[in-house]
Amino acid sequence: MMRANIICRYVKLLVVVVIGFAEMQTAHAQVDMKKGELEVLPTFYFDAISYSSDVEHKSRVDVYVQVPHEEIRFLKEGDQFIARYEVTLSLFTTTRQLVHERLWSAEVRTNDFAQTASNKLYNLTQRSLDVDPGNYVFTVQVRDQESRKTSHIKRALFVPDYKKDSLSLSDIMLVTRLSTDGEKKTIVPNISNNVGNFTDGFFIFFEIYNEPALDSVDVTWSILNAKKEEQLKKTQVEAITGHKTQMFFKIDNLNLPMGSYLLTVEAVPTHAVGDAKERLKATTSRTFVSRAGDLPLAVLDFDKAVDQLIYIARESELQYIRESKNAEEKKKRFLEFWVKRDPDPQTSRNELMEEYYQRVDFANKNFSHYLEGWKTDMGMVYIRFGGPENIERHPFDYNAKPYEIWYYYQQNRQFIFVDQTGFGDYRLTYPSTDLWGRVR
Questions:
Q1: Cβ-Cβ contacts under 8 Å for 323 (sequence gap 6 or more)
Q2: pTM, two decimal places
Q3: Could you tell me the residue ranges of all domains in the chain?
């Protein structure tokens, strides 16, 4: 595996970086949709983790960019295959003022052609920034030098002032693998944010800062699912080794169902009593997901993903998947359904499946009201046909209810939606037939 070695500051910590149906077409919402355009899923992973800095009045942000081999184009040069890409990191305030911008290049080499198209191998680069505490927006762009293909990720980040309180915790890093050699710890960060493939559990890493120095703290970590149901809660006493203490915790395999989760870590001085416990408590948290690696990023609820096939699958195909004896068989039948529709079986990705659930995700974000977006009429049309080439909006016509007309010129189709209630519940009124497994 292509690895990048990163030495973290101030500590002996080594980071080893280690659709099948005719009407489906790639759609990037050619017009301004109801609440925004379709966001193309990024082809790389990005994480930003903040820590205390040795620079006065600053905090440090470590930025990681992980690019899978399958997402960059390799060329044969001599006996090797080489890929090159550029990363642009831009840091803005919430008022869009540019604070930092970094540009760097990366080169990936391998002697094995099979590794050039692997979805399991990746290249990881890291940069550190010292910034004023506050709210920021990170924009990261990866550009493949050979194919000229670009991909973007945009993310908000709050950077705390770690020197403000007598006890504070850094952000949490998810860790894929941890090993020790004397005082040196070697870790492989988990930049994908997915723990679904770690059958033996996973590690987390964070730092504790305190003034004046304490001798120990009670550390409690807990995990909640999307319904705020507690999956784990554990407390133990940890020794403090100075003003900054590195903490590694192993979270054992919990067999977490597919979904999103919130991990929270709290620390309180061991000898604090009464109101002091709440007053001195420090907290940090982060989200993560549990998802099978062979499913699209947008799929976090497998049973719901099966239900969402309604706009592409025959009733007999849906029934075949739903009648599976167990979860393993259901997933096998689900993937078999998509394998039959894979536009390029030679690659590890199923672009059609990814596109379909990307549209489902867009519909949920933009057309939800009383119903989830994928169940609405606008969601149904968007999932089947993608973004319209033109939208004609009539929100305030005299003596008429608000309505929209979506035009698909290349397919010689148009759809008329009417807001019957005045609360944004647009219903399909034309065509009035051929509603393709309409949910409601």
A1: none
A2: 0.77
A3: 302-430
